[in-house]
Amino acid sequence: MAQIIDGKAVSAAVKAEVAEETAKLRDEKGLKVGLAVVIVGNDPASRVYVNNKKKACEAVGFQSYEYALDESTTQEQLLDLVNVLNRDDRVNGILVQLPLPKHIDEKAVINAISPDKDVDAFHPINVGKIMIGEYSFLPCTPAGVMRLIESTGTDITGKQCVVIGRSNIVGKPQAMLLLQKNGTVTICHSKTKNLKEICLGADILVVAIGRANFVTGDMIKEGAVVIDVGMNRLDNGKLCGDVEFESAEKKASFITPVPGGVGPMTIAMLMKNTLTAAKQQAGIE
Questions:
Q1: What is the reported pLDDT for 143?
Q2: Tell me: the pLDDT tens digits for 50-85?
Q3: Is 45 helix (H, G, I), strand (E, B) or coil?
């Protein structure tokens, strides 16, 4: 039976580190850290995420600036706000909550955020830096996954690592981070053939495909570390991941639960990125 990787405990440790450093920098250097979060429309899930980010800011000692815009906000109005925040010295990090309403081009908005304040690490400049291993910020979910793997004591060097999913937000950067830790990485997706056989070769399996209970225990190598990035709601209202937990737990050495695994890490790493941005903007190493 697998050991459960407690994302709540690991994320609490990350936030405690950030809070300690934030307090120290405030006392010694007079540095205040500010995160601006922009939400457009009334998507319930987005509202929950934004509220959680505000709570996290309070917990670590950041200033939180929320900009809640109407669904009818034009792309031009949103871009104008982003430009104002780019120039606002109180704001060290800018996060525009996705998804945006259909009439707004997400790519144009992401590209408008200053790379120095892009704490989601979605800007093409930051994505490019991840490719060459010279990054300031890492996308929050892949960075959180790396911290969870680290918490198990697993050495990634030389391990067979399989990532299921090739999104720009999780799959692709996840593969790069595992590669930078000397893992041997295979990226799988909807067109991959012989997926089960590939998964059975994985020492570390990261699943981010967005399909409920897609990976089952018979696809998992005995003793593998299994990280489930998925978050799906079943017809009965229950949340589940992309990995069928009960059968996978019998095969894995370590496994993340859903909820309570990767989810809490995403916001913790966002806090870490925002602190990094504030230090860089203040010229503090």
A1: 97
A2: 999 999 999 999 999 999 999 999 999 999 999 999
A3: helix
Q: How many angstroms separate the CA atoms of 70 and 177, rounded? A: 37
Distance between CA atoms of 56 and 14, rounded to whole angstroms? 11
Q: Which of 15, 116, 117, 120 is catalytic?
A: 120
- Is 30-114's fold the same as 140-263's? yes
32 is catalytic: no
User: How does pLDDT run across 15-44, given as a tens digit for each residue?
Assistant: 999 999 999 999 999 999 999 999 999 888
Catalytic residue among 97, 172, 174, 228: 97
129's CB contacts (< 8 A; 6+ apart) are 135, 136
Instruction: Determine the pLDDT at residue 89.
Output: 97
CATH number for region 140-263:
3.40.50.720
In this structure, the number of other CB atoms found within 10 A of the CB of residue 87 comes to 8
Tell me the fold of 30-114: Rossmann fold (3.40.50)
Could you confirm whether 77 is annotated as catalytic? Answer: no
pLDDT above 90: residue 45: no
Q: Where are the domains of the chain?
A: 30-114, 140-263
> Is 97 assigned a catalytic role?
yes
Q: What single letter denotes the amino acid at residue 142?
A: P
pLDDT band per the 50, 70, 90 thresholds, residue 146: very high
Per the CB < 8 A criterion, the answer to whether 265 and 14 are in contact is yes
pLDDT band, very low/low/confident/very high, at 99 (cuts 50, 70, 90): very high
Query: Which of 134, 70, 62, 144 has its CA nearest to residue 100?
Result: 70
In terms of Cα–Cα distance, which of 65, 61, 55, 64 is closest to 23? 61
> Which residue, among 107, 147, 145, has the nearest Cα to 127 in the 3D structure?
107
Catalytic residue of the set 53, 181, 221, 272: 53
